[in-house]
Amino acid sequence: MDASDWDARYAATDLVWSVEPNRFVAEIFSDLPPAAVLDVAAGEGRNAIWLAEQGWHVLASDYSAVAVERMRTLATKRLGDDSGRLTAVVADATQAAPRPAGPGANGATGEYDAVLFCYLQLPLPERAEAWRRGVEALRPGGRLVVVGHAGRNLTEGHGGPSSRDVLYDPDEVIAEVAGLPVDVVDAGVRDRPVPTADGERVALDTVVVLRRR
């Protein structure tokens, strides 16, 4: 899907995604001190807005201008006087990271304390390029957090894309960042319960946390 496809999808409904943060994002970031974070492919901002509510200074980017405008509107409503903690911009995940938001940010590479990719489902080589751009944006010691639909989800789980080309298991992410200055903090496939009309189903998500050297 290109940007116009995503624009059309977002424009067709009031809210494409949940307003709640992803459960794994909330779990991981609750253990980190709030600082500067880049949320890539942020959609309507469910994770970005939650991060700002926790005290993070968030730069949230997405390929879709419609999604970014909706994120700005939702952020203003939910954050109120704290809306300055979140800056939403249109950007491509495979290009250089946009400038950081928040006090002390100067736009140089290596200015983020965390970079989040939540359900960025791209094929190779675009996916590996996005990981590289994310690592470049991190300060030493910063965390790169990847949450995505696992490859195994196609045959063993529920929901998500139907093309294996855009799915990835933890070992694939680790292989794709080989040679980059990162260490693996955590990597695994996690169960995510999904309510459906036929009862609860289980989606399989890849969750990988990397630390920038």
What can you tell me about this protein's structure?
This protein has 213 residues and is α/β, with parallel strands linked by helices. It has seven helices and seven strands, in the order H-H-E-H-E-H-E-E-H-E-H-H-E-E. The protein has a single domain, classed as Rossmann fold (3-Layer(aba) Sandwich), CATH 3.40.50. It is 29% helix and 30% strand. Helix 3 (46-53) packs parallel to helix 4 (65-79). It has a seven-stranded mixed sheet with strand order 3-2-1-4-5-7-6. The chain has helices at 3-11, 23-29, 46-53, 65-79, 126-136, 153-156, 170-176, and strands at 36-40, 57-62, 86-90, 112-118, 138-149, 182-196, 199-212. Strand 2, helix 4 (65-79) and strand 3 form a beta-alpha-beta unit. It is globular, with a radius of gyration of 16 Å.
Layout of strands and helices, then pairs:
Blueprint: H1 3-11, H2 23-29, E1 36-40, H3 46-53, E2 57-62, H4 65-79, E3 86-90, E4 112-118, H5 126-136, E5 138-149, H6 153-156, H7 170-176, E6 182-196, E7 199-212
Helix pairs in contact: 3-4
Brief overview, please?
This protein has 213 residues and is of the alpha/beta class. It has one domain (3-212): Rossmann fold (3-Layer(aba) Sandwich), CATH 3.40.50.
- What fraction of residues sit in β-strands? 25-35%
Order of the strands making up the biggest sheet: 3-2-1-4-5-7-6
- CATH class equals Alpha Beta
Measured between the Cα atoms of the first and last residue, the distance is 34 Å
GO molecular function: methyltransferase activity
Pfam family, one: Methyltransf_25
Protein name: SAM-dependent methyltransferase
Organism: Terracoccus luteus
